[in-house]
Each structure stands twice: as C-alpha cells, then as structure tokens.
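Forgive a beginner's question, but might I ask you for the amino acids of a protein and the tokens describing how it folds?
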Amino acid sequence: MTSVTETASAGGAPTVTGTPTENPAELDRTDPATEVARAAQAYRNWGRWGEDDRIGTLNFIDDAKRADAAKLVRTGRSSSLSQPFDMNGPQLGWRRRTNPVHTMLDTGTDAQLANQGFPHGLGGADDVIAMPLQCSTQWDGLGHIFDHGYAWNGRRSGEVVTSDGDLITGIEHTAAEIVSRGVLLDLGRHLRDSGELEDGYAITTADLESCIRAQGATAAVGRGDIVLVRTGRYARAQRDGWNGYAGGPSAGLSFTTAGWLHRSEIAAIATDTWGFEVRPNEFDDAFQPLHQVVIPNMGLTIGEMWDLESLADACAADGIYDFLLVAPPLPITGAVGSPVNPIAIR
C-alpha cells in the first residue's frame, strides 16, 4: 500500500503556495482547483495518528473526554436528533438515493388468520427495510469522498473502497467512538430573528465565533467536541415541504471555515442540512469542495440531515448549549456512511 510520505505531494492535485483565506470575498471563484489544493495542503492530517489510522479526527475523543461529557447530564432529558426514516423523506433519486422502503413480512392480519404456523395461538410481526445508507440522518464515513484519487491518510482510493466495500476505513471502525461532548451552535437564531438562515448563506468563521460568544461559556468549542450547527433549513422543510432540501440551495458552512475546523480540533461536525456546506457552493463551477478538503485530507467525520429543533428549543430555554452526545453509526462492515439516531442527553 502507498505510504503517507510517498503520497504527501503525489496525485493530480496542483502544488500551490500561500495561506488559505478565511474571508469568502477573497476566494477566487473562477479557480476552485487551486483553492481546494491550498486548503488541502494546509489542513492535511495524513500521518498524524500513524499510517494505519482508520478514524481520523475521532482520535480526539478519548476515555477522559467521554467521562467529562457524561458529567454534562444535568436533568436526564434526552432528545432524538434524527429525521424519520420513511417514504416521506427528502430524497429525489439523485445518485440513486431513494427514501426508505419499509415492507411487512408478517402482520397482525396473518396472526389473526392463524396462518403463521405457530403453536398455542402465538402470532407475530416481522418487517424489512431497504434504503441507501445516506438517505436521511447519517454520518459520512472517511471512505465517502476522495481528493484526486486519494482517500483519508494518503491511501489510493482504489485500494480503500472496492466493490467489496471500504476495506480500511469502513464505518464499523467508528462504532464505539462517537460518544462525546456535543455543542450546539444555533446560527439560525443567532443571525436571524426568524431563526432560519436563507438559502445560499455562507456561514463564516466570524459567524461561528460570534455565535459562541453570544451563547456563552457552555458553547465554547474545543478538542474532541462534536459540533452541531443549526441553520433552520430542516425547520423550513418541515413547515413548507422539502422543496429541494436534498441537493438544492441551502445555508451551510463556507469553504473558508476549513481552517477553523482544523485548528479547533473537533472530533466531528453535523448540520441540519443535506450537504453540510453552503449551496450553491462558493465557486462558479464546483461540487462540495469543503467535503474534498475535510474528509480525505483532514479526516473529519461529517453528519448531515440532523433534526436539531427540539434540542435547539431546549438550549434556548435554559441557555445551556453543551450536552452528552451519543451517536454511534450502525457497524455495517465496509460501509462509507451510516444511518444514525443521535441522542443528546442534557
């Protein structure tokens, strides 16, 4: 397998100089390739946790971090942060992503007709579900996105993900990792009286930092935290219909927040939007350029399509924005993403 040192400057990505900007107005909208390469080089974590690493920034969560996070449970109130998994979901078929199809294998009708073959009047129900793993509330695994044919930690993408699945960074390796201090940054409430950011709004580093200051000490972000960013996009979808929620325009993180994501040493980040970053993207011709920097280069785990509404209401009511977050993926061997039912316990 190709080593980190061999691939640090390999591949088709251009070698560039200069420091990435944190001001969206300074991005060269006509040259996403250079901007992506500059950020990838500046914020690359290849080799940071050894050449055999499988989990990237989730390494920032250790046992002491989880023990401290458990102390944040004050009332025991829990909130599910998952959208429903049903046919009324957001998917429109892009990249063959469909909403979940739930089928009953045995029903109460079968039991009532006594045709299930069980003795002494026993009856039962069974069901099956078919769905893409990233059709609703989910984690992006580290094998989900590549940069010029390279995956997380400098491995060739074809050596990582094959027709047999993700052979190295499969989501199953994170099954016991994603328990930590969660922090809600409610950018929707912070920036707009309506509580909802408009489509196309690019959340900047300055926005993130001002939100932290406004929310107070419990919103401080540090090593090993899982940051949840609420834009209000899901609230609008619930009120007005999906209307392009999956793949359409949305507020989201600016490409220029890559530096903040790197230096804050967070373990993971999740949003209430389909794509985590602002859409349309901040270049004339690009597709999810922040993904290209943070997943294969930084090793950051990303969550999308989370329902942050009940949590945001609770945080706004008492002014406390941190909590114990328990959000393990399903340990699906070789998967590059996973459905999740995240639980915030306050």
In short: The first strand starts at residue 78 and ends at 80. The chain has a mean pLDDT of 95. The first helix runs from residue 4 to 7. The two ends are 44 Å apart (CA to CA).
